[in-house]
Write a structure and sequence with these properties.
With 264 residues, the chain is α+β, with helices and mostly antiparallel strands. The chain is built from seven helices and six strands, in the order H-E-E-E-H-H-H-E-H-E-E-H-H. A three-stranded antiparallel beta sheet has the order 1-2-3, with helices on one face. Strands 4-6-5 form a three-stranded antiparallel beta sheet, with helices on one face. The longest helix has 47 residues, at 3-49. The chain is rod-shaped and about 140 Å long.
Length: 264
């Protein structure tokens, strides 16, 4: 598959994955947010309805097995705020021992100490919030959002790579004017012996390598940066010294052409 076909495929895949994940996230949140709001409201109401407005102690005579038995209770009254905005007065009774009852009767302890940890009657049957259900639901929502964001990230990265690869592919037609312009400052080395010698200069780290330019498989000497006559003469002498073992005629021809290069 060509680079252009790969880029187009990645571009299409990136847009598709990104759009799909955004759509799923929006639709999912539209369904989940009301549910989360209801859960939050129930727990908020539950906390408010847990406030005891009144407590009293009660002693009752109960017939058990043909004999009278005394039992002791603490009755709690709740001012319950319902989700619909209304209110309801609810009561809950907890049985206590005679010792606790005497202590309550004498005012040694407060009845609030014996409030149940969770007054179930503060909610109408079937409407009280369940902690385990709430936690599982919230964890499921968090997992869904995390997975969707991960998929969205994959789509965005794929799309970004496809767009960046498109920018990296330069149009060859755009490079032609600059190469034609730079050709006035360069001399192409076509002699194989001279090319071999100059390639050795690149490998040996010679200062001559600073003025050598490769375009595709062609090798050039570029003296555009040498703006002063003295710098130009120094570069020419260095070139002659490095190529002294090559064909003298080819070297002279190359140096003549280099000497005729214009300066900026």
């Amino acid at each position: 598959m060509s680079d252009e076909a790969t880029r187009r495929r990645n571009l299409t895949m990136g847009w598709t994955i990104s759009a799909f994940s955004v759509l799923v996230l929006v639709l999912g949140l539209m369904l989940v947010v009301p549910w989360l709001s209801d859960i939050w409201g129930r727990w908020a109401d539950f906390n408010r309805e847990s406030i005891v407005t009144e407590a009293e102690i009660v002693e009752k005579d109960t017939q058990l097995g043909g004999r009278s038995v005394q039992q002791y209770f603490v009755t709690y009254q709740f001012a319950a705020q319902l989700g619909s905005g209304g209110s309801l007065t609810l009561t809950q009774t907890a049985q206590v021992s005679r010792t606790v009852f005497d202590a309550l009767d004498l005012g040694q302890v407060s009845p609030l100490r014996y409030i149940p940890a969770r007054p179930e009657e503060a909610y109408l049957p079937g409407t009280e919030p369940q902690l385990a259900t709430s936690l599982v639901g919230i964890a499921s929502v968090a997992l869904f959002v995390a997975l969707d964001l991960m998929i969205l990230t994959i789509g965005v990265v794929t799309l970004r790579d496809a767009l960046s690869s498109n920018n990296d592919q330069a149009d060859p037609a755009d490079e032609i004017p600059s190469q034609l312009e730079d050709s006035n400052y360069r001399v192409q080395v076509t002699d194989e012996l001279l090319r071999s010698k100059l390639n050795q200069a690149i490998g040996s780290g010679s200062s001559l390598a600073r003025w050598m330019v490769r375009i595709d498989d062609d090798l050039y000497l570029d003296f555009r940066s040498l703006t002063s006559p003295s710098a130009r003469r120094k570069a020419l002498n260095l070139t002659r010294a490095y190529l002294q073992t090559a064909n003298p005629a080819q070297v002279d021809q190359l140096l003549d052409r280099l000497a005729q290069l214009p300066t900026d």
